[in-house]
Predict the structure.
Amino acid sequence: IIQLQHGAHRLGRRNDADMARWRAYGLGQFIHWGLYSIPAGEWNGKMYNGAAEWIRTWKEVSPQAYDSLIYRFNPTKFNPDSWAAVAKQMGVKYVTITTKHHDGFCLWPSKFTDFTVANSPYKKDIIGPLVKAYDKQGIDVILYFSVMDWHNPDWRYDIKTRDDSIAFNRFKQFTRNQLLELLTQYPSAKGLWFDGTWDKSWVKQAAFADSLETEMRKLHPGLIIGSRFRADEYGKRHFDSNGNLMGDYEQGWERKIPEKITDVHGNDWDCVMTIPENQWGYAKTWQGHIKTADELLEMLAKCVSLDGNFVLNFGPKPDGTLRAEELSLAKAIGDWMTVNKEAIYNGEYAGFIKQDWGYFIKSTASNKIYMLVFNIPVSGVLRVATPSHMAIRKAYGLDNAASNYTSEEIGSSTYFIHPNQQITPKKPFVIVLETGEEAKGQTGGYEKAKT
Ligand SMILES: C[C@@H]1N[C@@H](C(=O)NCc2ccccc2)[C@H](O)[C@@H]1O
């Protein structure tokens, strides 16, 4: 064990009500919106092949020209209630919205910089109306904040000289001021989603970041902050020098999903996912594979089955509307959630052996076990191996056919679930298992082989 001042301050999961609420979300929405939405991956008629929100770093783009986009930010069609209504229909329980991305442009009228919506043609605060609209729909809000700020002249990638140190100390105060400002202006926010914290300059600020995190938690009791905010005094990020998770949940699953339960080390976590391979801000043309609704539903099921939340990203257009592809995916996901949401909300790892047909999710609300089926076996029957001494009492479908199923015990703690009619679904579907303790002494006479 290494003595740490600025490592993890808690071992294991948070066990308070605020975190239990976060843990139960299952499905979330990410929103990346800002100046980068205007060029949308194109500059002087050429397509940038990186992520659209990183276009300022392209050698073809002068930072000053990029920063002048502030004079073109005027989302006349922005209607936060319509975004919140789309999210509601989709079935998301929380939204993570960019307050300030790496480019430093603030979607709220911050007092600590001029590079905000207040000095754009739009003039008005974006974050406040968004928080209000989502709160009205009963959708919780998490504020995304990038520590790295390319616009701020005091930002440094590393601290090499005394001048760097003087500048970066100003930057640290600026960052603290903005974060306290956000928590004060938008007190209904449930948490902060930090990004842009990988550079050496910030990684060297273990003590400052640790005390700032403590200050924010004191200002906003219950605040949820992930593992990407700070490093320990040895520069370790996400997991400290003793291998313990810093923050309240693991924030390493960006555009990737854990394979098995041991990959998540008993921690809470979220997976943040793009619809194309890697575009967060609005990009005029999406290159490569665009994920389908069924792919996204399977990612959602997999995340919840492994104790995580799945957060799907939307990149609104510069005029404030959502693009057609995102609207249709939100609708398809929402239609599926309307029928199957009880398998997702309050979902947790069920402890069953993974089967090829899909995913098990246990509900903390009902103790029911849900089978989320994505692949029908050639045999047409679905195998279930229960944790030992757990018997299956009943099996029924969640879809409107309320198709029912018969369970057949085929071995010790092993069952076949037989559909009572030919299942030829075109969409993933859910079977509910009601289970119970195997009667004492009742074994199906299954004898283990002696080997
Ligand atoms: C949530 C995403 N995080 C930002 C990002 O670029 N992260 C990954 C990354 C980190 C370091 C170099 C390149 C890319 C993206 O711009 C999104 O905001």
User: Anything to note?
Assistant: The mean pLDDT is 96.
